[in-house]
UniProtKB/TrEMBL annotation:
PANTHER family: ATP-DEPENDENT RNA HELICASE DBP3. Keywords: ATP-binding, Helicase, Hydrolase, Nucleotide-binding. Its EC number is 3.6.4.13. SUPFAM superfamilies: P-loop containing nucleoside triphosphate hydrolases. This is RNA helicase. The keyword Nucleotide-binding applies. InterPro entries: DEAD/DEAH_box_helicase_dom, Helicase_ATP-bd, Helicase_C-like, P-loop_NTPase, RNA-helicase_DEAD-box_CS, RNA_helicase_DEAD_Q_motif. SMART domains: DEXDc, HELICc. Residues 92-120 form the DEAD-box RNA helicase Q domain. It catalyses: ATP + H2O = ADP + phosphate + H(+).
Length: 550
C-alpha cells in the first residue's frame, strides 16, 4: 500500500474548552507534547488504494441462534441493557462465543465462570466488525470486552513484520491504566501469538521504540507518547484496523482530543473503532461522531444516566472544610482498627495529597501517595507497594481515579469531592471490583460542592442508596437556585407549581429498596467501639457491616 499524504492544517483553537476542563489541578501526566501538531501529514483517503482486511469473524453459535426472543428480552431487561443499533444477540456463556483454545484456557485459569454483561453484549458486536460505544459500571469487565476481540482480530490479519505498524491500537488516559491493560492483553495474547507492547510518557523511550520497531500486533498507549512516536516515524498507523478509546470521555475531557483526533485522522477510516467508559457525559457524546462510524452500536448497561456500581455502599458526610481533616483522621483510625482494610483516599490537588500524606505518615499510618508530579518510577513503585499490600493506604489525586483494577480495595475516601460527579463515580469504582465483592465509599461534601449535589443525589438514588437529608437539602436548594437563575428548566415542580423534593422522582422500586436501607451519613453513626464489633466483620454482609447503621 502506498500512502499519498496531503497535509491538512489542524485547528487547535476550537478545542480549547476541553483543554481548560477543571480536572482537579492534576491533569494526570499531561505530556510535554501537549498540543503537538504532527508534521506527518494526514492521508488523503480518497487517493489511496487500501488493502482489504477482515473484521467479521463471528459465527453465531447454534445455542444462541435457538435462544427464544423471550429469553433474550428477559436477559436484556434483567440486566437493564439498552442497545441502540442493530446488534447481534448477546451470548450468555463462554462456550457460546468460540474463542480459540489458548484464550479459553486463560479464561479458565482466571477462574471466570461466565462473561460479564458488557462482555456478553460486546463480544458478538466486536467480533462481527461493528463500531461500538460500551458504557457499563466500574469493575464490570470492560477491558476483556474489548481486548479479547482485539486479539482475535489481530490474529486473523497478516503477520506483522519488523518495521510494520501494529494492527490494534488501544488508547487510555493514564500511564497506570495503560500498563494494566497491557498486562491483560499480554496475558491473553501471548498464547495466541499476538505480541503486545505498552507506550507511555515518563518512562525511557528506547525500549518502547525498540518494541515498536521489532513489530507488534497490539499497542496500548497514552495519547501523548503515541504522538511522539508517530512524529518520529517509529509508530506507523497504516496497518491499524482495530482502534479502542478506553475511558474515552476522560481522555477528551482531559484535553487529549487534539492528540486523539490527529491519531484517528491518520488511521484508515474503514477501521473498527470502539469506545468504553463507565460514564458518558453529554458534553462528549457528540465527539463520538468524529471517531466512530454512523452505524455504530451503543450499549449501556444499567441506568442510561450516570450510574455507580450498586455493590458499593456510598456514604456522604456533609461538613465544613475545617472539619474535614479531623473527621478524616477519625475515619481512617476506624477503618484501620476495624479491618486493616486497603483504602484509597482521593484529594483534589497535589498539594493536598502531599499535606495529607505527611500528616498521616507522622501519625504512623501505613501510607503511600501518588500524583502527577511524582517521577514515573516512583509512581510505579508506589502502585506496586499498594498492590502487594506493603502499605495499605494510598493518598492520590484523580491520577488513580480511572480504570485501576486492584481487587482488595475495601474503602474509598473522598476527602474532597471532585469537580464532576462522573469523577466521583469512577473514584468510588476503585472498590467492589470483582463480581461478588462489595466496598464502601466515604465522601466529605461541603457547601463549595453544592453544584454537584443534584447529580450526586441522583447517583445515590439510582444505586439504591439512601440519601441523607443534609445533602438532599443542598441539592434541592441548588436546583431551586439554578432554576431561578436560568429559567424554569431545572426546577422540579408539580402541576400546582409546588416544588417536589428530589426523592419523589425515583422509580417506585428504588423507593422501596431505599426504605429497607439505613441512612448513609457518618454523622448518624454511633461512637465507634471497635472491640465490641470486630467479629461481625467476618460475616458475609451486604455492603458494610450493619453495625455502622445501628
Ligand atoms: N467474566 C468475568 N468474570 C469474573 N471476573 C471478571 C470477568 N471479566 C473480567 N473480570 C475481572 O473483573 C475485574 C474488573 O475488570 P475491568 O478492570 O476490566 O473493569 P472495568 O469495567 O474496565 O472497570 P473501570 O470502569 O473501573 O475501568 C478485573 O479484575 C477482571 O479480571
Amino acid at each position: 500500500m502506498t500512502l499519498n499524504y496531503n497535509a491538512i492544517p489542524f485547528e487547535m483553537n476550537q478545542y480549547q474548552p476541553y483543554m481548560n476542563s477543571n480536572y482537579g489541578y492534576d491533569h494526570y501526566q499531561r505530556q510535554s507534547n501537549d498540543g503537538i501538531i504532527l508534521t506527518t501529514p494526514k492521508p488523503d483517503w480518497n487517493q489511496l488504494v487500501l488493502s482489504n482486511f477482515e473484521k467479521n469473524f463471528y459465527i453465531e453459535s447454534p445455542i444462541v441462534q435457538h435462544r427464544s426472543m423471550e429469553d433474550i428480552q428477559q436477559f436484556l431487561s434483567n440486566h437493564q441493557i439498552t442497545i441502540d443499533g442493530n446488534a447481534p444477540r448477546p451470548v450468555c456463556n463462554f462456550n457460546e462465543i468460540n474463542f480459540p483454545d489458548p484464550v479459553m484456557e486463560t479464561i479458565i485459569q482466571c477462574g471466570f465462570q461466565k462473561p460479564t454483561v458488557i462482555q456478553s453484549c460486546s463480544w458478538p458486536i466486536l467480533l462481527s466488525g461493528h463500531d461500538l460505544i460500551g458504557i457499563a459500571s466500574t469493575g464490570s469487565g470492560k477491558t476483556l470486552a474489548f481486548i479479547l476481540p482485539a486479539i482475535i482480530h489481530a490474529s486473523h490479519q497478516e503477520f506483522v513484520k519488523p518495521g510494520d505498524g501494529p494492527i490494534v491500537l488501544v488508547m487510555a488516559p493514564t500511564r497506570e491504566l495503560v500498563q494494566q491493560i497491557y498486562t491483560v492483553a499480554h496475558q491473553f495474547g501471548r498464547l495466541a501469538q499476538c505480541r503486545t507492547t505498552v507506550i507511555f510518557g515518563g518512562a525511557a523511550k528506547e525500549p518502547q521504540r525498540n518494541s515498536l520497531l521489532a513489530g507488534v500486533e497490539v499497542v496500548i498507549g497514552t495519547p501523548g507518547r503515541l504522538l511522539d512516536f508517530i512524529e518520529e516515524g517509529v509508530l506507523k498507523l497504516d496497518r491499524i484496523t482495530y482502534l479502542v478509546l478506553d475511558e474515552a470521555d476522560r481522555m477528551l475531557d482531559m484535553g487529549f482530543e487534539p492528540q486523539i483526533r490527529q491519531i484517528c485522522e491518520r488511521i484508515r477510516s474503514d477501521r473498527q473503532t470502539s469506545m468504553f467508559s463507565a460514564t458518558w457525559p453529554k458534553e462528549v457524546r457528540q465527539l463520538a461522531n468524529k471517531f466512530l462510524s454512523t452505524n455504530r452500536i451503543h450499549i449501556t448497561i444499567g441506568n442510561v444516566s450516570l450510574a455507580a456500581n450498586p455493590s458499593i455502599c456510598q456514604i456522604i458526610e456533609v461538613c465544613t472544610e475545617s472539619q474535614k481533616e479531623n473527621r478524616f483522621l477519625q475515619l481512617l483510625r476506624e477503618v484501620m482498627a476495624l479491618r486493616d482494610a486497603k483504602t484509597l483516599v482521593f484529594c483534589q490537588t497535589k498539594k493536598r495529597v502531599d499535606e495529607i500524606y505527611r500528616t498521616t505518615k507522622q501519625l504512623g499510618f501505613p501510607v503511600l501517595c501518588i500524583h502527577g508530579d511524582k517521577q514515573q518510577s516512583q509512581r510505579d513503585f508506589t502502585m506496586g507497594e499498594f498492590r502487594r499490600r506493603r502499605k495499605i493506604i494510598l493518598i492520590a489525586t484523580d491520577v488513580a481515579a480511572r480504570g485501576l483494577d486492584i481487587q482488595d480495595i475495601q474503602f474509598v475516601i473522598n476527602i474532597d469531592f471532585p469537580n464532576q460527579t462522573e469523577d466521583y463515580v469512577h473514584r468510588i469504582g476503585r472498590t467492589a471490583r470483582s463480581t461478588e465483592s462489595v466496598g464502601t465509599s466515604y465522601t466529605f461534601f461541603t457547601s463549595d460542592n453544592a453544584k454537584q449535589a443534584p447529580s450526586l443525589v441522583r447517583v445515590l438514588q439510582e444505586a439504591g442508596q439512601k440519601v441523607n437529608q443534609d445533602l438532599m437539602d443542598i441539592a434541592e436548594d441548588q436546583l431551586y437556585t439554578s432554576g431561578s437563575k436560568h429559567g424554569s428548566k431545572n426546577r422540579i415542580y408539580n402541576n400546582n407549581q409546588q416544588r417536589i423534593p428530589l426523592q419523589q422522582h425515583q422509580q417506585p422500586q428504588q423507593q422501596q429498596q431505599q426504605q429497607q436501607q439505613p441512612t448513609n451519613t457518618l454523622q448518624s453513626y454511633p461512637i465507634y467501639q471497635p472491640v465490641q464489633y470486630i467479629p461481625s466483620f467476618t460475616q458475609p454482609v451486604n455492603y458494610i457491616p450493619s453495625l455502622i447503621y445501628n
